[in-house]
Every structure is written in C-alpha cells, then in structure tokens.
Specification:
The structure holds two protein chains of two kinds.
Chain A: E1 3-6, E2 9-12, E3 18-24, E4 32-37, E5 44-48, E6 52-53, E7 61-66, E8 69-74, E9 84-89, E10 96-97, E11 101-105
Parallel strand pairs in A: 2-11
Antiparallel strand pairs in A: 1-3, 3-8, 4-5, 4-9, 5-6, 7-8, 9-10, 9-11
Chain B: E1 3-7, E2 10-12, E3 18-25, E4 34-39, E5 45-51, E6 60-62, E7 70-75, E8 80-85, E9 94-104, E10 107-113, E11 117-121
Parallel strand pairs in B: 2-11
Antiparallel strand pairs in B: 1-3, 3-8, 4-5, 4-9, 5-6, 7-8, 9-10, 9-11
Chain lengths: ~110, ~120
C-alpha cells in the first residue's frame, strides 16, 4: 500500500493552522498513525488509529479520515512544531510510511 | 520508565554482516511487538521488520528489501531483540531504530522508540 503525503513541504508561521494530507493507494480503514520527527531525533507518535491523540501530545494536534484519505491538523503552530511529519499504515504488510512532509518556519 | 537502547551499528563492507541489539526495560518484554525501522541519510522512514509478542510465538515479518537477508530474534533472559543483517548492501546504510508496539482495537501502534544506531556500508 502506497501512502502519498501532500504537501511534501510547507512554510508557515507561528500561530497558523495547517493541514497535511495522507492518501492511501487502497482502503486501510482507520489503521493509520502520524509521527513527528525533529532533526537528529527518533520519530514521536502523535496520533494513532487515524484520530486518537497519543497521551502527552498537545491538543492542538488532531487527526481525521478513514479509508483512503487522512489528515493531520495543527490548529495553532508553535515553534517546537517545525519538524517533519510522517503517516504510516498498519493495515497490511509490508507496513509503509508516507514520504514525509517538512514543515518550515516562514 | 520505558526505554529501548540500540547498539551494534558500525562500518561494514558490502557483503558483510552485522548484528544490532535492542535492549528494552520498563515494560513486560514478552507482551509487546517490536519493530525495526530504518532511515537512510536525508531520506524518509522505512519499515524493516517485526517481532510479534510471546502469545504469537515471537513470529516475524520482513520488508521486501531485506527479506532473506535480515533475521529478527529475541532473548527473553536479556530482554533483547536482535536484528541480524547479512549480505549487506550500500542501500542498507541507515540509522536503525527499534520501537515498541501497543495494541489498540486489534492493531499495533508504536509509542516508544530508541535513539537509533547507525550502520554504514562501504568498502
């Protein structure tokens, strides 16, 4: 299953609301999660089962969608949110990741 | 405190072998799935393989690019998951992470990650 994220990169300002989209090449129900990765660090789980917020993750992060189209929204960007974001499907082997969305400060 | 600590990375020649270790603590080792994920320099994340939990006989799955060359195993007494990598190629050069799974509604999601161990393949 191929996951295609859009956009591949995004410039935004602190306080902005942004949405990243992840599209699957076939239906995966809600078996998708989202990760944040800062440079030189391991990925961090943000959202699982498409829309469930991982414990300790700020509520400005939210996820939605099912089937083949999914979104990650950050309601009000904070300085620490500038990072790369990946979606991942766990419906079918092999597990696959999206290519990543790099979020940069405008 | 949940921790996963990888080790064993290094420089190896093409065609060579390397064994990575992932030592875990702070949770019941046998209850959880463990995945290996890698990231080539400047690239995205790639799933390498999975070790299921003891209830599922520690069975394994592998990505297409490593199947037949890489093997995942566990040692309960050491709370360690191993990734044996044989016939290494230049395209295997990456940071390798191990990550712990938790189950939700019948599927597994990955909440804790190690810091990674780097593997370089070059002559």
């Amino acid at each position: 299953i191929q996951l295609t994220q859009s956009p591949s990169s995004l410039s935004a300002s602190v306080g902005d609301r942004i949405t990243i989209t992840c599209r699957a090449s076939q239906g995966i129900s809600n078996y998708l999660d989202w990760y944040q990765q800062r440079p030189g660090k391991a990925p961090k789980l943000l959202i699982y089962a498409a829309s469930t917020l991982q414990s300790g993750v700020p509520s400005r992060f939210s996820g939605g969608g099912s089937g083949t189209s999914f979104t990650l929204t950050i309601s009000s960007l904070q300085p620490e949110d500038f990072a790369t974001y990946y979606c991942r499907q766990c419906d079918t082997f092999p597990i696959t990741f999206g290519q990543g969305t790099r979020l940069e400060i405008k | 405190e949940v921790q996963l600590v990888e080790s064993g990375g290094g420089l190896v020649q093409p065609g060579g072998s390397l064994r990575l270790s992932c030592v875990v603590s702070g949770f019941t080792f046998s209850d959880h799935y463990i995945d290996w994920v890698r990231q080539a320099p400047g690239e995205g994340l790639e799933w390498v393989g999975r070790s299921r939990n003891k209830v599922n006989s520690y069975s394994t799955e592998y990505g297409a690019s490593v199947r037949g060359r890489f093997t995942i195993s566990r040692d309960d007494s050491e709370s360690t998951v191993y990734l044996q990598m044989n016939s290494l190629k230049s395209e295997d050069m990456a940071m390798y992470y191990c990550t712990r799974g938790f189950q939700y509604n019948g599927h597994w999601y990955f909440d804790y990650w190690g810091q990674g161990t780097p593997v370089a393949v070059s002559s």
